[in-house]
Amino acid sequence: MTLQASLSGDTRDSQSSNPEGNSFRYIEVLLESLGILERLGSALETIAQRVTPELHALVESTLDEVEER
Questions:
Q1: CA pair distance 24, 18, nearest whole angstrom
Q2: In terms of domains, do 47 and 28 share one?
Q3: How confident is the model at residue 21 (pLDDT cuts 50, 70, 90)?
Q4: Are 17 and 5 in the same domain?
Q5: Which domain holds residue 64?
Q6: Which of 16, 26, 43, 55 has the fewest C-beta atoms under 10 angstroms from its C-beta?
Q7: What's the structural domain count of the chain?
Q8: Given a cut of 60, is residue 34 above it in pLDDT?
Q9: What is 2-63 written as a DSSP string?
């Protein structure tokens, strides 16, 4: 299904009503949208810059939560 079909309401399963219900499809739609808007390159650069600090923060908060238990 293309982005245009998704936007026009062509839904094939019950999860289509919630765009986050199928995470792989949700990411596909986001990437297609960024490509159409010619923003894919800058979005990927931003993700590459933020992934390491975000992952470290997630691990740290998880470790803190485990220690509290």
A1: 13
A2: no
A3: confident
A4: yes
A5: 40-69
A6: 55
A7: 2
A8: yes
A9: -HHHHHTT---SGGGGSTTSSHHHHHHHHHHHHHHTT-HHHHHHHHHHHHHHHHHHHHHHHH
Percent of the chain topping pLDDT 90:
62
CA-to-CA distance for 60 and 33, rounded, in angstroms? 33
Say yes or no: 7 and 31 in one domain: yes
In the numeric block, which tokens belong to residue 50? 């933020």
Q: Tell me the C-alpha distance between 11 and 21, whole Å.
A: 13
The CA angle 26-29-36, to the nearest 5 degrees, is: 155
Q: Name residues whose C-beta falls within 8 Å of residue 2's C-beta, 6 or more positions apart in sequence.
A: 32
User: Are 51 and 28 part of one and the same domain?
Assistant: no
Measured between alpha carbons, how far is 34 from 44 in angstroms, rounded to an integer?
10
Cα 32 to its chain centre, rounded Å, is 12
